[in-house]
Specification:
The protein has 13 helices and 14 strands. It has 364 residues and is an alpha/beta fold. It has 2 domains: 132 residues, 3-Layer(aba) Sandwich (Rossmann fold), CATH 3.40.50.2000; 200 residues, Glycogen Phosphorylase B (Rossmann fold), CATH 3.40.50. The strands form 4 sheets. It has a 6-stranded parallel sheet with strand order 9-8-7-10-11-12, sandwiched between helices. The chain binds 2-acetamido-2-deoxy-beta-D-glucopyranose (2 copies). One 2-acetamido-2-deoxy-beta-D-glucopyranose binds next to α4.
């Protein structure tokens, strides 16, 4: 149900540390919501979030349905609150983020939890953020080759890559509107398609879920490539033809897109995804939201307009420039130049030193 967990990562005597796999902003916003249920204390559509600055506002539509109706008595809120209150007794919280990238998020998370929050992200392999990333291992080689070959044939910065992650779906009517909008936009797209809401995620994809003749048409004129079940996401995001990522804004996908300098077209579907999309838009300026949640309805022309905005217009150019700056920032956080270590490496060193000093066997 939720995309992030807090777990006790290390227990050495009295020393324990929480770990959030999400970003600081997303963790703070989501945690603040179910700990304090601020939406229960106002009828307004704009909600103040404890922990965030007084001027900060969240829209009710940026809350997943299950949270909007929550009053704190549900088993899942009870569980998360107990779990979170326990983790608030930790000595520190490790967060999968980068200090300079999430100024507001880290400030809010520290303010909300009172904990020493350590930014040690991004938690993917170092080679994944260097330019020559090539996946090692057994994943479907054919799929990889097919994607790269197709991308090679498209102009630089022209392709929209679409994926809603492994655990999310959109509705059948949203899928139709998205397909029509993509086709109308005239822009190349690479789409990781999956069954719409209400069907088993592992079910074979059926043509009836897309407009009649869609895949054959976009295949024939080479406008679009549809892939199923799995896509080599980092390779796609690393490819020079990729111009934007239409994403559910899961934190992994968000960081991966940023680390490759690719602007985001946001469509958050659950949990912290709403706050990741908001942060990428309002704080970082690299995202435009296309839709929000699985209930949102829109015309195909809306899809067409957003895609053109991001790929063709000044706004998109600015997003791209910023995304490239953040990619540099992320790389710098995990790089070592002579004696100079990036921020994530320094925080990690300090953390390990602190743990050694605090451990029962320590001489100091
Ligand atoms: C910390 O949280 C409080 C309570 O929500 C808020 O009033 C204050 O502005 C926050 N401080 C900062 C620095 O964000
Ligand atoms: C996110 O990325 C990490 C590091 O690559 C990986 O271990 C984890 O399984 C990913 N999570 C999801 C939900 O894909």
């Amino acid at each position: 149900m939720v995309a992030w967990t807090v777990v006790i990562a290390k227990k050495l005597g009295i020393f324990h540390v929480s770990f959030t796999t999400c970003g600081a902003y997303g963790t703070a916003a989501y945690m603040s919501l179910y700990l304090h249920l601020p939406h229960r204390h106002t009828d307004s559509s704009e909600i103040k979030l404890p922990g965030f600055p007084e001027t900060f506002r969240l829209y009710r539509s940026q809350m997943p349905e299950y949270l909007r109706v929550a009053d704190g008595t549900e088993p899942w809120t009870t569980f998360l609150r107990r779990n979170t209150l326990f983790s608030l007794q930790s000595s520190a919280m490790i967060c999968n983020t980068i200090e300079d990238l999430e100024l507001l998020g880290l400030q809010a998370l520290r303010n909300l939890t009172g904990l020493n929050v350590l930014a040690i992200g991004p938690l993917f392999p170092l080679e994944a953020i260097t330019s020559s990333y090539q996946r090692k291992g057994k994943k479907p080689e054919i799929q990889l080759e097919a994607c790269l070959e197709w991308l090679d044939s498209r102009p630089p910065g022209s392709v929209v890559y679409i994926s809603f992650g492994s655990q999310n779906t959109i509705t059948a009517s949203q899928m139709m509107a998205l397909a029509r909008g993509l086709e109308a936009s005239d822009k190349p797209f690479l789409w990781l398609v999956g069954p719409p809401a209400g069907f088993d995620l592992n079910e074979e994809f059926r043509d009836e879920w897309l407009p009649e003749g869609f895949e054959a048409r976009v295949g024939k004129n080479r406008q679009g490539l549809l892939v199923r079940k799995w896509a080599p996401q980092l390779e796609i995001l690393s490819h020079r033809s990729t111009g934007a990522f239409l994403s559910h804004c899961g934190w992994n996908s968000s960081l991966e897109s940023l680390s490759r300098g690719v602007p985001v077209i946001g469509w958050p579907l659950m949990a912290d995804q709403f706050y990741n999309s908001k942060m990428l838009d309002e704080e970082l300026g690299v995202c435009v939201e296309l839709a929000r949640g699985a209930e949102d309805t829109f015309e195909y022309t809306h899809v067409e307009r957003i895609i053109r905005l991001v790929l063709d217009e000044e706004k998109g150019k600015e997003m791209k420039e910023k995304a490239i700056e953040y990619a540099e920032m992320i790389r710098a956080a995990v790089e070592e130049k002579g004696d100079e270590k990036g921020s994530a490496l320094r925080v990690l060193d300090d953390f390990i030193r602190g743990m050694e000093e605090a451990s029962p066997g320590s001489k100091s």
